[in-house]
Amino acid sequence: MKANVVNIQGEVVGEVELNEAIFGIEPNEPVVHQVVVAYLANQRQGTQSAKTRGEVSGGGKKPWRQKGTGRARAGSNRSPLWRHGGVIFAPKPRDYSKSVNKKVKRLAVKSVLSAKYADNELIILDSIRFDEPKTKKMIEVFGNLGANKPLLVIKGNDRNVYKSVSNIPKSKCMPVSNVNVYEMLKYDQLVLTKESLETLQEVYS
Predict the structure, then answer these.
(1) Are strands 122-125 and 12-17 parallel, antiparallel or unpaired?
(2) How far is CA 187 from its chain centroid?
(3) Which of 34, 115, 128, 134 meets the CB 3.0–4.6 Å disulfide criterion with 27?
(4) pTM, entire model
(5) Per-residue pLDDT of the chain (205 residues; tens, 9 = 90+)
(6) What is the rounded CA–CA span in Å between residue 87 and residue 91?
(7) Which residues pair with 3 in a beta bridge?
(8) CB atoms within 10 A of CB 86
(9) Coil, strand or helix: which one is 184?
């Protein structure tokens, strides 16, 4: 398998060999779904909390006698039916995290990479370097690549590139070490530099 390598002007400057075991497999949708659900669940803090009727202040004394008043029965002024009362089935801090096997995660990443290649949503960039952050220049680069909602994956921490992408709507830049299924699916185009492609192929081969 081969893919074209382009420069920041969008011109083809060469070819690169793609590992068929990473970019040429049949995407496994159930596995991708499982990994995305686990990723989103693991982003939840699980710190929400509200008080039940047993935890709010007040109560204790019966508001009025059981019978003879013409009003509904009431045993506490902190009933969930009352103002300032407790919450029925109040949410409590809990752990939402889900674990996924390493093999399943790897298969999900390969599935998404293969789907991106099959759908012509994979762009291989020879390199990208900026002397200073330039959002306008980065917009021009994405325009040259035909990428309107791209995820740019680079190797290392080039602050100038990160800052150039950060102010562009519907775009993101991330290091290859942080690549995950959810982010790749969220954006329409996956833009890999040659360095980040080599790293991916080393890790997932």
Answers:
(1) unpaired
(2) 10
(3) 115
(4) 0.84
(5) 889 999 999 899 999 999 999 999 999 999 999 999 999 999 999 999 999 999 999 888 999 999 999 999 999 999 999 999 999 999 999 999 999 999 999 999 999 999 999 999 999 999 898 889 999 999 999 999 999 999 999 998 889 999 999 999 999 999 999 999 999 999 999 999 999 999 999 999 8
(6) 9
(7) 16
(8) 20
(9) helix
Residue 49 CA to residue 61 CA, distance in Å, equals: 26
The Cα 101–Cα 182 span in angstroms is 16
Number of C-beta neighbours around residue 33 at 10 A: 12
- If we measure between CA atoms, which residue out of 149, 195, 155, 146 comes closest to residue 179? 155
Quote the DSSP letter at residue 132: S
Question: What phi, psi does 123 have (nearest 5°)?
Answer: -120, 125
Q: Are 73 and 40 in contact (CB under 8 A)?
A: no
Tell me which residue has tokens 């398998």: 1
Nearest in space to 168 (alpha carbons), one of 149, 186, 184: 149
Read off the amino acid at residue 106: R
